[in-house]
Amino acid sequence: MTEPRPAGAVHVRAPGKINLSLAVGPKGEDGYHPLATVFQAVTLYEDVLAVPDEVIRVSVTGRHADRVPTDSRNLAHRAATLLAEATGIDAGVHLQITKGVPTAGGMGGGSADAAAALLACDLLWGTGLAREELGHLAAELGADVPFALTGQTAVGLGRGDALTPALARGRFHWVLAIIEDGLTTPEVFRAWDQLNSGARFAPRISDALMQALVAGDPRRLAGHLRNDLQVPAIELQPRLREVFKAFDETSALRALVSGSGPTVAALAPDHATALAIAAAVEQADVADEVLVVSGPAHGARLVESVRDSE
Ligand code: C5P
């Protein structure tokens, strides 16, 4: 985003995420599944430029932009509307989204848009909410939205929205295999329901995983990565079998589906090896795009605020 910015515009960036662990319990009466998850924000971002406008509207460019709705189904649109309602303000905004996170990929791209839109509109409109208040609005918008505000590495309980920061040392290097034919979160949870009917257990996070994070040791962490949505995601998107086969033939420590998929994230021992793994998976031609990222990354934050006098 190097073009001149309109006066008064606010530019906020929010990260995509992967789930290092995602344990799912049986669906509750509210239609949601209790989760115990560990999120890690990674260096793949959504950029939201909030420009003063008469009405609330959204436009989208960047990765998979053609598949993102710009009307009130768009989570950033809903975020701006919710903030206006919650603060009783009658204001408009043009949210110009530049997507870096795959759409419907299980990496929380839409949630990052919503988190960035909340923060950008709060700054643009001068509504001055505390981070905690933004967090409450974020949780109303979706289970992954509060995490996109806070970023870093965090444990998510409840619907995934009750967050506790996790201690993680060092950087973890990931290779992402992106499949453009996305999956929606509800369909993957429905497939999980069918595979786990009658299940009675509370989801939990392994202590060993938390210890591996504190140690900053990718080899140890690899042994404890887990995603209960992986089996239903593979069932719905059989191309994933080829992706896993391709990673198996590299020095990736472990590969797993990110969130509800279909993005697959493979943990590498270091950055140089991540580049070599990415080249091999690219060569195998099993994914639509292969990227190298690292985590943890920061949560939604202000990049630039263009003063009116400029
Ligand atoms: O909260 P969010 O809008 O992102 O969730 C989308 C859908 O994913 C929900 O409507 C629900 O079907 C499913 N979901 C769930 N349990 C969760 C989170 C999401 O069943 N903890």
TrEMBL record:
<dbReference type="InterPro" id="IPR006204">
    <property type="entry name" value="GHMP_kinase_N_dom"/>
</dbReference>
<comment type="pathway">
    <text>Isoprenoid biosynthesis; isopentenyl diphosphate biosynthesis via DXP pathway; isopentenyl diphosphate from 1-deoxy-D-xylulose 5-phosphate: step 3/6.</text>
</comment>
<dbReference type="Pfam" id="PF00288">
    <property type="entry name" value="GHMP_kinases_N"/>
</dbReference>
<dbReference type="InterPro" id="IPR020568">
    <property type="entry name" value="Ribosomal_Su5_D2-typ_SF"/>
</dbReference>
<feature type="domain" description="GHMP kinase N-terminal">
    <location>
        <begin position="74"/>
        <end position="151"/>
    </location>
</feature>
<feature type="binding site">
    <location>
        <begin position="102"/>
        <end position="112"/>
    </location>
    <ligand>
        <name>ATP</name>
    </ligand>
</feature>
<dbReference type="GO" id="GO:0005524">
    <property type="term" value="F:ATP binding"/>
</dbReference>
<protein>
    <recommendedName>
        <fullName>4-diphosphocytidyl-2-C-methyl-D-erythritol kinase</fullName>
        <ecNumber>2.7.1.148</ecNumber>
    </recommendedName>
</protein>
<dbReference type="InterPro" id="IPR004424">
    <property type="entry name" value="IspE"/>
</dbReference>
<feature type="active site">
    <location>
        <position position="17"/>
    </location>
</feature>
<dbReference type="GO" id="GO:0050515">
    <property type="term" value="F:4-(cytidine 5'-diphospho)-2-C-methyl-D-erythritol kinase activity"/>
</dbReference>
<keyword id="KW-0414">Isoprene biosynthesis</keyword>
<dbReference type="GO" id="GO:0019288">
    <property type="term" value="P:isopentenyl diphosphate biosynthetic process, methylerythritol 4-phosphate pathway"/>
</dbReference>
<feature type="active site">
    <location>
        <position position="144"/>
    </location>
</feature>
<feature type="domain" description="GHMP kinase C-terminal">
    <location>
        <begin position="209"/>
        <end position="283"/>
    </location>
</feature>
<keyword id="KW-0808">Transferase</keyword>
<dbReference type="Pfam" id="PF08544">
    <property type="entry name" value="GHMP_kinases_C"/>
</dbReference>
<dbReference type="InterPro" id="IPR014721">
    <property type="entry name" value="Ribsml_uS5_D2-typ_fold_subgr"/>
</dbReference>
<dbReference type="InterPro" id="IPR036554">
    <property type="entry name" value="GHMP_kinase_C_sf"/>
</dbReference>
<comment type="function">
    <text>Catalyzes the phosphorylation of the position 2 hydroxy group of 4-diphosphocytidyl-2C-methyl-D-erythritol.</text>
</comment>
<dbReference type="InterPro" id="IPR013750">
    <property type="entry name" value="GHMP_kinase_C_dom"/>
</dbReference>
<keyword id="KW-0418">Kinase</keyword>
<keyword id="KW-0067">ATP-binding</keyword>
<comment type="similarity">
    <text>Belongs to the GHMP kinase family. IspE subfamily.</text>
</comment>
<keyword id="KW-0547">Nucleotide-binding</keyword>
<dbReference type="GO" id="GO:0016114">
    <property type="term" value="P:terpenoid biosynthetic process"/>
</dbReference>
